[in-house]
Request: fold
Amino acid sequence: DAGITQSPRHKVTETGTPVTLRCHQTENHRYMYWYRQDPGHGLRLIHYSYGVKDTDKGEVSDGYSVSRSKTEDFLLTLESATSSQTSVYFCAISEKWTSASSGANVLTFGAGSRLTVL
Amino acid sequence: LAKTTQPISMDSYEGQEVNITCSHNNIATNDYITWYQQFPSQGPRFIIQGYKTKVTNEVASLFIPADRKSSTLSLPRVSLSDTAVYYCLVGSGTYKYIFGTGTRLKVLA
Reply:
């Protein structure tokens, strides 16, 4: 168990307000990710981190910022939320998976944070 | 980053074998192929991973041809509980994982 906790799990906010989602992991994984998923759509990468204070943009980073001041926490901030950012947000970590036939990293996801922007 | 292409949806009946194929024509030499399953209101979860040939675990099998430009996830004797979205993901060294649209599998009684 990768020990991933997302908070809050549900949030309703108004357009123009700032929102911060938190992802917390307990096993010192180096790589952490934020994805969003909209109804009927797949997962889209927002930002990811490859270490403390090391982050990079994903596919849909506009309107989002991230911070990682310590290994266990990866924060996603919407500086001024818009209705188009209503979505389910998933945090993930990347960890090594080793078997007899493979040995690359796999993603383990948190339970998700459902954000509604009115 | 290898782009993947999968069928948008598939229907099957309980007890049948289901094969979902993923196309990844520009896969890199060091890329692995990983499949995930996602139920409604949950995050995706890992099913199986492979590099070449065939991999089998207690849940599924993964077939990868020699040219590695495609892969096929095989689910033996599906049940209603296998109704989910299945994603093929290709990547490794960059750690920037981009998902495709996935395949929505519906298992019918």
Observations:
- The first strand of chain A starts at residue 4 and ends at 7.
- Residues 31 and 39 of chain A are 26 Å apart (CA to CA).
- The mean pLDDT of chain A is 92.
